[in-house]
Amino acid sequence: MSKQEELRATARRLLAENRVDLILGYTAGTLPLRTTPFFARTPAEADLLVWNAFCEYNLTNYLPRYTGNRVGIVVKGCDARSLVGLLQQNQVQRERLYVIGIPCAGVVDRRRVALLAGGAEITAADITGGEIVVRGRGFEKVLPMEEVLFPSCRRCRYGNPVLADVVLGEKVPERKETYEDLAALENMPAVEREAYFAREMAKCIRCYACREVCPMCFCKQCFVDGTAPQWLSRWVGTADNLFFHLGRTMHLVGRCVDCGACARACPVGVDLMAFNRKMIKDAEALFGYRAGLDPEAHLLLGTFDPNDPEPFLFRG
Amino acid sequence: MKNPYLPMPARIEQLVVETTDGNLKTFVLRFLRDEDRRVFDFVPGQFAEVGIFGKGEAAFGIASSPLETGRVAFTVNRVPGGVVTNALHNARVGDIVGVRGPLGNGFPLKAMEGHDIVVIGGGFAFTTLRSLVAYVLHPQNRGRFGRLQVVYGAREPGLLLYKEELEAWQKREDIELTLTVDRCSIADRWTGCVGVVPKIVEEIGPDAAHAYAVVCGPPVMIRFTLPVLDRLGFPPERVLLSLEMRMKCGIGTCGRCNIGHKYVCKDGPVFTLSDLNKLPAEY
Amino acid sequence: MIIAKDDLPTFLDGLLGTYQVFVPLADGGESRYVPLAPGGTFTWQGVNTRKPPKEILFPQSEVLYSYEVGGDRVELREHFDKTKRVVFGIRPCDARSFLHLDRVFLEQEHQDPYYRERRENAVMVGMACLEPASTCFCTSLGGGPFAADGLDLLFIDLGDRYLVRRVTPRGEALLREQPALFRPAGEADRLAAREAEEKAKSLMSPIPDLSGVKPWLDAGFGDPLWDRVYEKCIGCAVCTYLCPTCHCFDLTDEAEENQCVSGVRIRTWDTCAFPLFTLHASGHNPRPTGKERFRQRVMHKFRYFVENWGEAACVGCGRCIINCPVNLDIREVLREIMARAAGAGVSA
Questions:
Q1: Distances, alpha carbon C278 to alpha carbons A231, B256, C271, in Å
Q2: DSSP letter string over B102-153?
Q3: Closest approach of chain A CAs to the CA of B28, in angstroms?
Q4: To which H or E segment does residue A124 belong?
Q5: Backbone angles phi, psi at C7, to 5 degrees
Q6: Least CA distance to C277: which residue of chain A?
Q7: CA dist B156 to A127, B19, B123, B195, B196, Å?
Q8: Gap between the Cα atoms of A246 and B90, Å rounded
Q9: ω into C24 cis (within 30 of 0)
Q10: What is the DSSP letter of C320?
Q11: Of A76, A227, B18, C150, whose CB count within 10 A is highest?
Q12: pLDDT(B177) > 90
């Protein structure tokens, strides 16, 4: 049985036995390279669930909306870590959840596929073995899967969900997590790095898709929306955009699990992961902390240890 | 052509703290420029965007009558956390504010002429009703309208607006004013009615045959008043309501104050109940 | 008229003396209309740019006026943008969106002078779509890959040359500025253009019939459809900000140095997708959840705008489909509405 068949069977059973009110999963999308979030409420609807490398959404983002329901939810490795974060922060109740974990070898980076395919419209995409075949008007291109996976997935250590009531299918091999992706930025002269971020920030249209799609952005009122005082101007420009993204990044320290949902949601391709990855790296290097592994653990910024390094005190 | 986004500067000429809780203040404004005074030609029921430079602006119903020339008054309820209302409440006599308006449709005075008028108001929503009553009572206009009955209620006596004017109205013969409060203490020396507005309206039982009812007040008052008016025989075409919505532009472009295809800022804020019944209940 | 493709850079360069010229440009997977530098030209190969040209007429952020309060008086200075512009390479769907924006900003009791200044100073030059994308559905909404509504000129790519349709006197005047570059079109050119148009139309994806949408929406405000159809919407502004017809905005003040002595009033895009959009100061919100907000977007485009202006506020450009972070596809929503309309026996 494929993971997808196993998923449908599991979901059907949970719904038929009335153990959950709904299943948060994925169904076929309307575009190539896409699936779409799906809320199955009947055994018949369970048969519409899909599982493939296009299941790029972090569905735990929807959980705080369903606190009154018993929810079955499909989680990949990164999503399971988000779920741990939500549990740590009392945003969801464990006893109301049935967690269907699916070991994940990585999801496809649509933007990268489009780039590698030359920019012409892709009208069909199929994954066969280790390759993805994309077609459009008058072209076909075969790309190795490993090359088109989302960057976070290519270095993901936690493809196997850290928390689940049932795990479907074989475990995936653990990858080696490195921070090589940050090296280029870290080694850049400060002036160039500033210019790089200025360019990225100039793209942002402040649609807040990054915030809305992030499971950790569950604040009832975001700091950018306040009016008394108004922290952030409504003006959309490099400086204000940077203020928003840095504020968001700082608020995600020790909570971001590198799922990449924000970067995939961004309609204009802002390099959001650069910020997040730097914070993830520093949290680990300075405090030995990794987000989303233990529901019982305190949050990084919610703990004090007299032995914590305090480099900011002397670096200024 | 005039730029509808440009405020007309006006000076705060007079400030009246209306209620005992201090949360309602009336601002009497005088435009700095003569041409603005001429432009600001309004009918009761219209509103304006009033702002403090640097803080922004918000929509307020015009509380003065068009016949009080040269000056225009707004009564502002201070909302906790409201940037503009707090800034206004912190302003002093002599300070300059910006006014954009008049905006909206106002009460349909032409249609109302020749009819009895039943004004039903609650709380701080009495502002544009004050404008309407002052307009009808003006010697130039009084003869064009029939009976004028006013029922005005507040939670307690200290929260009624325009007390001096209410006293003056009570002494007149051409207006039947009934004041009511939800509750009062002996110290209030209250001589009016006690009871919620819909109940008082029902007791008074205004004759609906040739009358317009004009209703402004908190949602709960409106909800219970409308069935009373229905029982009294007011057809929805002759029940007028003034709506509140979050607004920005005031001219039907910024997109936030619509109810169905109507924009409260330009198609309203005054609607007949029959108009509203045709729109989605999203307000 | 006909202009050789080789002459296009000369034509565009020749405009730069008088106009700021915008062309669509791809930039690392992203694309939008950008000012052309001297010596630059039109290289765009795609169908729709990620960002529509709407921002040229209605920028995401703009200063409406600056103010200075001093003792007895207030100085107000309006910031109008009277730059003369040519926008080159506009797709017919985006051109059509200008007509919708015109209605909102110019055809009401109060004209919007900021939009008017930009609009009156912009010459709109279109580029017909030879190969519409699979997400295009302009023909369902009164448009077409060769439609010229909202344009002053329409260019049609005939391989080594463009056939230029003169749509308005303003467009015609633009050609007369460099008459040497253009020659009259012959019968063969016109035939080639007609063939290209037929081919483009044949490449359009199967299109849902939308005639029943408005009648269904008229009675469908309280339908259970809305309980489910919004469910995956995350409430971001992608669909509205990238929509060429969405025009909602916010007005705020920016005080300098946090003093109220001087500053500016700015206008910025806003969206019905955000809860703050309609939140009253009292805390009451007429559209409290994603359900009401998503319904507002659909209702505004396909019912309210039709009621006020006779047409839907959608040009079928497909941007909201391509860019939605969760693949909430407006065509699916419309199909679902049509299915219900058919079931309910509602017809146009």
A1: 20, 6, 10
A2: EES----HHHHTTSEEEEEEEGGGGHHHHHHHHHHHSHHHHTTS--EEEEEE
A3: 26
A4: strand A122-128
A5: -90, -5
A6: A225
A7: 72, 10, 9, 10, 11
A8: 34
A9: no
A10: H
A11: A76
A12: yes
The answer to whether C253 and A235 are in contact (CB under 8 A) is no
Mean pLDDT of B157-169: 94
Digit-coded pLDDT (tens) for A269-297: 999 999 999 999 999 999 999 999 999 99
> Residue C104's closest CA among C293, C295, C245, C238?
C245
- Report strand pairing: B71-77 vs B24-31: antiparallel
Q: What sign does the CA torsion over A129, A132, A136, A141 have?
A: negative
pLDDT of residue A316 exceeding 50, the answer is no
Q: Would you call B83 an interface residue with chain A, using a CB distance cutoff of 8 Å?
A: yes
The answer to whether A100 touches A72, Cβ cutoff 8 Å, is yes
CB of B54 within 8 Å of a chain A CB? The answer is no
CA A12 from chain centre, in angstroms, equals 26
All residues at 6 or more sequence positions from A217 whose CB lies less than 8 Å from its CB, including other chains: A211, A248, A251
C113 touches chain B (CB under 8 A): yes
- Rounded average pLDDT over A260-267: 97
Q: If we measure between CA atoms, which residue out of B204, B230, B189 comes closest to residue B151?
A: B204
- Per-residue pLDDT reduced to its tens digit, A11-27: 999 999 999 999 999 99
Pick C234's closest partner by Cβ from A38, A119, A212.
A212
Check CB contact under 8 Å for A227 and B86. Answer: no
Structure-token pair, residue A314: 């002397």
- Distance between CA atoms of C245 and C319, rounded to whole angstroms? 11
pLDDT 10s digits, C218-233: 999 999 999 999 999 9
Asked if B81 lies within 8 A of A230 by C-beta distance, the reply is no
- Would you report the helix, strand and coil content of chain A in percent, each value rounded to 5? 40, 15, 45
B1 confidence band (pLDDT: 50, 70, 90): low
Is residue A232 within 8 Å of residue A224, measured between CB atoms? yes
CA quadruple B123, B128, B133, B134: dihedral sign: positive
The model carries a pTM of 0.95
Looking up tokens 């999963």 gives A25
Residue C193 tokens, joined = 């253009």
Cβ atoms of B14 and B28 closer than 8 Å: yes
Which range has highest mean pLDDT (A93-97, B33-37, C254-258)?
Answer: A93-97
> Which chains have at least 3 CB atom pairs separated by less than 8 Å from chain C?
A, B
Instruction: Name residue, tokens 């209703």.
Output: B215
Could you say which DSSP state residue B222 is in? H
C238/A209 touch (CB, cutoff 8 Å), yes or no: yes
Instruction: Provide the Cα torsion A10, A15, A19, A22; round to 10°.
Output: 100
Q: How far apart are CA C30 and CA C51, in angstroms?
A: 8
Q: Using the predicted structure, report yes or no on whether residue B263 has a pLDDT greater than 80.
A: yes
Query: What's the CA gap between C296 and C205, in Å, rounded?
Result: 27
Q: How far is B210 from chain C (nearest CA, A)?
A: 33
Q: Which residues of A touch C250 (CB under 8 A)?
A: 234
Nearest CA in chain A to B79: A228
| Confidence bin at C276 (pLDDT 50/70/90) | very high
**Residue C45 half-sphere exposure toward CB, CA atoms < 13 A:** 6
Packing angle between helix A272-287 and helix A238-251, nearest 10 degrees?
A: 40
Q: Note if the bond before B102 is cis, omega within 30 degrees.
A: yes
CA distance C343 to C225: 13
Coil, helix or strand for B72?
Answer: strand
- Would you call C329 and A119 a contact, using CB atoms and an 8 Å cutoff? no
Query: Phi/psi at C239 (nearest 5 deg)?
Result: -65, -35
Distance (Å) from the C-alpha of residue A226 to the closest C-alpha of chain B?
10
**Rounded to the nearest 5°, which phi and psi values hold at C80?**
-95, 145
Question: Cβ neighbours of residue A248 under 8 Å, at least 6 residues apart?
Answer: A210, A211, A217
CA of C149 vs chain B CAs: smallest distance (Å): 22
